Amino acid sequence: MSLDNNKVKEIAYLARLSIENSELEQSTKELNNILSLMDQLGEIDTGDAEPMAHPLEMSQRLRDDQVTEDDLSEEFQEIAPKTGNNHFLVPTVIE
Amino acid sequence: MTWETVIGLEIHSQLKTKSKIFSGASTAFGATANTQACAVDLGFPGVLPVLNQEAVKMALRFGLSINATINKNSIFARKNYFYPDLPKGYQISQFEIPIVGNGVIDISLEDGENKIVGITRAHLEEDAGKSIHDMYDEFTAIDLNRAGTPLLEIVSDPDMSNAKEAVAYAKKIHALVQYIDICDGNMQEGSFRCDANVSVRKHGDKLGTRAELKNINSFKFLEKAINLEVERQIDILEDGGSVVQETRLYDSIKNETRSMRSKEEANDYRYFPDPDLLPVAISEEVLLEIKKSLPELPTEKKLRFVEKLGLSSYDAEILTSQKEVADYFEIIINKGADAKLSANWVMGELSAALNKNQVEINDSPISANELFSLISRITDSTISGKIAKDVFKLMWEGNGSVDEIIEKQGLKQMTDTNALESIIDDVISNNLDQVQQFRDGNLKLLGFFVGQVMKATQGKANPKQVNQILNEKLTEI
Amino acid sequence: MMHNLTIAEQIKGLKSRDFSSLELTEHYLSRIDDSELNAFISVTSEQALTQAKMADSILAKGNASGLTGIPYAHKDIFCTKGVKTSAGSKMLDSFISPYDATLSEKLNSQNMVMLGKTNMDEFAMGSSNENSYYGSVKNPWDTKKVPGGSSGGSAAAVASRISPFATGTDTGGSIRQPASLCGITGLKPTYGRISRYGMIAYASSLDQAGPMTRTAEDSAIILNAMAGFDERDSTSANKSVPDYTKNLSKSLKGLKIGLPKEYFSEGLDKGVERVIIQAIKDYEAMGAEIIEVSLPNSMNAIPAYYIVAPCECSSNLSRFDGVRYGYRCDDPKDLNDLYLRSRSEGFGDEVKRRIMIGAYALSAGYYDAYYLKAQKVRQLISEDFKKAFKEVDVIMGPVSPTPAFELGSIKDSVSMYLADIYTLSVNLAGLPGMSIPAGFSDNLPIGLQLIGNHWSEELLLNTAHQFQLKTDWHNASPVD
């Protein structure tokens, strides 16, 4: 499976990354290189093996429905790039 | 034009847990922005989710009440997309294996018919925060208090064929989630949100392209939005065009739907099982415990009202549609009042007064016990049904108990046969023309005589007795 | 010299007042100052001195717990409240963490002294510590060579004795490989042994923290303090923590050691092979039985890992969007511009590559062929180990196919990835693994890898400790 420049641009946007046109060729080459490594997976016969999502056989632990967190909004907003009126601010979004 | 409409609803029901689904921050409504968003909710580097037990239990309550398959090992999956009110850049949801599978619910249509609607699945997920676009000119403001609130997303089969059915279904689910106490159903506050998937097709054709309608926060708007959309799609198709699969926002002020520009870009959500969470194992014991804790569900209650209390299906449907109303009604019945009479009073006078004054039944100034007393006084003939309405009004305004009002206002029904006969004799002798007309065959005049007797007795005469005595006296020569 | 003492010896020294924690701390801070290895991103001198003085007052009262007053270096992937936490990235260059990782809390509660945050490959992605926003780290044995990665700073700090121990994290070998290249002892415990809460996530189902020390005994002491159930981490195992120092002295007679035949093939450097084989002979001399085993899916670990890890990381790193913390580009024109430029300017090249690979592998139509398939291969790899552990107690082999390589010598990602061949499967199976110094080749350290079954840290530490009683490699030092 080989990617072309357009596909690479698509993937980059999916991950909200931008690639300069001058670097596109190089990026595509690098990604294809890694892809050929990944494509080796296609040659492996996994038989009827189940996909393993977790190395340990555990079930999800449940926590009690209690309020345990205090309001630390002041500290949290101190490190935010832009805030106003207790809100996090981003450039206007048009819905 | 034989156009068929196909509608499926996706309902997001906020679960009324105290804390969030994956963190210990509070879910209380109305707090100052971002004061209920902890480190986990804000998606700081390194934070991890831990699942709220109560959210799981609530999802199971829902599943059991729609007789659904319960997936004993459901998986949380990440739905990846970028939006400023989605802190982690993904929403923790459920994809391939939701906690609740196929179920059914039956709804009552306007003509009294029942319809069974299939529910494809219901799954747990976290809510996103809120984006406020009008606080600043050049900025959108983000409040993450709501981020992490547990949601149960309920997906129906595309079984509804018109807006009214869709509304009936939505109302049924709305009532059910409140019945089993998992959601407060407050559509204004956003704790119960309906999205509709609408498509049209010619009879016999395969399914048409659907559009998703969002931003609907009342049943009235749901009906309007769906009807608008059906019209819009039919217009397009009749003009030879084709419907675009998209998300459309309903604008209640302009009464139109419009395409959501920002979400038009095809979203590849790249679902995969969340590696920070493990499969949610549900045991038979837990299911049994939850089943036992469920209240009698609306469908069962309705059946009991029809079969055991002899109410009509229509009346039973109304009385059981809201748990608070059913509970109120049952207090009255359990004290021994006549079912039909009680039903009429709850659905009639009480309902009208509650609506007029915009009061919920739980806040009614006339308690179930007090209404029972009023109904008893009708049954034991102390007052007539008509007088009872006046007493009701006075009770509503806080003028005391039933008996106090009857006493103070002197509203006791006149049942003394001798006294009644005497008054009736007077009425007859004062209206000899009408007596003659009645005897000549104008039987409708009975009403006139009854009216005269009521006037003479300030409405207190027992109508049954009056009728009986009048009939006797008018027909004897 | 204080810095040549092991932690075990320093604990004794503090207790018997041979020196104070303040003296120890000042000594290390001064050595850090003189060091040119670039092992640290932040040196928290003021805080360290305060912590040392506090430790001394507790020691004076006589009711100090084991690790009171012991200094350490903390990999900059762990959130430390009020202290810069960068994960080696420009994206978090300005991030002062508002909370402490569980591990940070645990070490603080022991009244230990944090010297600073160590340098690392950006977001733990790399095997040479050349992917850091803060510049490469140098190998103390040869400053033209890499120290390994991603925990390169931690390894270099311990090896050059500018810190008695350091915390590290291991997703595909990032504790074991730098430990091997720098000649120190590194332990990655069983997945779930140490809490991940507050440990900036790279690949959630593979990441695990662990101690990097000079000796196995020190490793056991530190593991005692790091291990344990954490209710804030759903993947944390609710298993009791034994005293890992208790059984270090058990005899290895009868120990069954497995040598995977797949690990001794062509790609292995002759010098490395020589060291490993000698180490095995040493074990035989101690009474262990050497058995050949087979891990047929070993080679498949590379494609499996380089799908699972990028997929998980592409999602884990989506939170870095310039909205609530971290790097935000100047004057974003609109939301898209905010995302695109903050992320493109904030992330380094390798991170961007892995994010894109992950996004692609998870995208519509590719999920089955890549992610799902990789998880199936993971199952097979796990089964290989299960089978092997029916016949042997510990598996041994190389950590890295070569000794430390020249800085800047490996330019393409794939070549770098291929060098992870011996370490990746251990993470995929969630098993515990160690690297201990076993010799030299061309004057560069070579590590021996020990792999155990789930929850066999005690056995691994015992096995490592016995080797260190019989050999002297772990005492070799690149500095005085």
User: Helical percent range of chain B?
Assistant: 25-40%
Please tell me the overall pLDDT of chain B: 91
Compute the number of strand runs of chain C. 11
Give a count of the beta strands of chain B, DSSP E runs of length 2 or more: 16
Radius of gyration of chain C: 21 Å
Largest sheet composition of chain B: 8 strands, mixed
Spell out the key features of this protein:
heterotrimer; A: 95 residues; alpha+beta; two-stranded antiparallel ribbon; 3 helices; 3 strands; 36% helix; 9% strand; flat; C: 480 residues; alpha/beta; Amidase signature (AS) enzymes; eight-stranded mixed beta sheet; three-stranded mixed beta sheet; 15 helices; 11 strands
What are the SSEs and their pairings?
The complex is a heterotrimer of chains A (95), B (477) and C (480).
Chain A: H1 5-14, H2 21-38, E1 62-63, H3 73-78, E2 83-84, E3 87-91
Antiparallel strand pairs in A: 2-3
Chain B: E1 3-14, H1 39-42, E2 51-52, H2 53-65, E3 73-74, E4 77-80, E5 90-93, E6 103-108, E7 114-126, E8 130-132, E9 139-143, E10 150-156, H3 163-179, E11 192-202, E12 211-216, H4 219-238, E13 247-251, E14 256-259, E15 272-273, E16 280-281, H5 284-293, H6 298-307, H7 313-320, H8 323-334, H9 339-356, H10 368-379, H11 385-396, H12 402-409, H13 417-429, H14 432-439, H15 446-456, H16 463-475
Parallel strand pairs in B: 12-13
Antiparallel strand pairs in B: 1-10, 1-11, 3-16, 4-5, 4-15, 6-7, 7-10, 8-9, 11-12, 13-14
Helix pairs in contact in B: 3-4, 6-7, 8-9, 8-10, 10-11, 13-15, 13-16, 15-16
Chain C: H1 7-15, H2 21-34, E1 40-43, H3 45-61, E2 71-75, H4 102-109, E3 113-118, H5 152-159, E4 166-170, H6 176-182, E5 185-188, E6 208-213, H7 216-226, E7 256-260, H8 270-285, E8 289-293, H9 301-316, H10 335-346, H11 349-362, H12 368-391, E9 394-398, H13 413-418, H14 424-429, E10 433-441, E11 444-452, H15 457-470
Helix pairs in contact in C: 2-3, 5-6, 7-15, 9-11, 9-12
